[in-house]
Amino acid sequence: MIIGILTDWFRRSNKSERLWLLAKIEFKLRYYENKLGLFWALIKPIMDIAIYYVVFQTIMKQNVPAFASYLFIGLILWNFFVESTTGTVQILNTKKYLYEYSNMNKLEIYVSTLLSNTIGFFFNFIMFLLFYNLLEKDTTYSTIHTLWILPLFINLYILSLATSLILSNIYVIAKDITQIWTVFTSFLFFLSPIFYKLDTFKAALPSFDYINPLAGIIINARKATMEGTYPDFKLFVFDFAYAIALLMFGTFLLNKLGSKAAEKL
Amino acid sequence: MTKALAIQAKGISKTFHISEDSHNTVKHRLFNLFNPPRAKKVQAIKTMDFDVYKGECIGLLGRNGCGKSTLIRLLAGVYPTDTGTINIYGNTLLMNLGVGMSHQLTARENIYVSASVLGLKIKEIDKIFDQIVDFAEIREFVDTKIKYFSSGMVARLGFSIAVNGGADIMFLDEIFAVGDMKFQEKAIKVFESSWIEGKTVILVSHGMDVIKKYCNRSAFMKNGSLVYFGDTDKAIQMYIEDNH
Q1: Distance, CA of B3 to CA of B172 (rounded, Å)
Q2: Which of A84, A107, A209, B39 could form a disulfide with A215 if both were Cys (CB 3.0 to 4.6 A apart)?
């Protein structure tokens, strides 16, 4: 019955079409406006990988097996989070034209922007799979466990949406959040196991994978895509609960502060 | 038979807190880091109640600064109220010198986005797309970003989207000030046709002829208060007297 009601609502409402339309336009604005276009979406992670590979594998000799793939999956998950949070701190200001003249739900603006980032993520993820299976040496091929990336990505999407809601609504009353978040993301980047060997990370920061939800998502994504095993379910459930709790707080802020965006910004 | 409600406002009010930024120099800012600028309270809308029924065309009259634009922003859900509640039954469109459009997008993209925000499906927008473009007289520039448009072209496009897209409840704030004389004549013709038929319209205008011709009820506002809400002729009379 619930499914029936939802299907009927979706058929009558234009919300799903609108979300997709806004996501496509956002994607176009981000990539088609520049000379490099979509090519940039491809070379950005490759350039990042090259930099970290030289530093951590060549100079610091971490000896992580398949380090380029290890970096690749970590970086694309991290980049999605950063683009969806840092890139949306001022979203209520830049997308004012969408809600200033109608009673459109502001949450749709966030969902569509993150949907646009999702297109970029899956484009990068396909590149990762090709790289891992065709170019990476001394590794096994991807297994059915790779599909665990879907629930893990949903977890990351909710976490990013929640963080985006919190930051952009604080921005309505305190614009300094932009600078503070930039510093915080640098800190978070070095506290996530993106380029460290996992054992080194766990030994130096015990239980930190439970404090930093991004760490859990990255660890589980590597288990699913590179090790061909199930994710750590305890960590998975913990990260999901973390994201849902933050989303509830973000929605509360949207109702409390976001409703004043039109007059404050 | 009871009439169906379109808007129900109960005990609504709005006060703006405007800060006076007197720390203009870096020295001032540094020495007054913990001394925030003074805030001034401006009561834009004083407590009021009213109902608007489906299919009504309501005129909103009052001198500049009396709170007309703030009131329609409250009703359209753009600003939250400080007190009271507003119940809106349907999707809304607020229009003053155009509807919301992004200057980073082309006219085509803006048409699709704006019409979609108004509740139309893509297939429905496809059907009215040519009408919107032709009415706005921008056929040659349909794939040009609107940041390269003149202000008149942007206004015409906004008006055209609103006319062809529409919404259940429309708040029209001085819409006849859009475009050149030729376009204004066209806008009035549209208004006279069946555009607003069956829709709920709140019309803000200083043009008494328009209010008198189309509005079955009107409200007169003064200094943020709803002084009168009822017969259009009486509201116009009060507005004229207030101007003398």
Answers
A1: 23
A2: A209
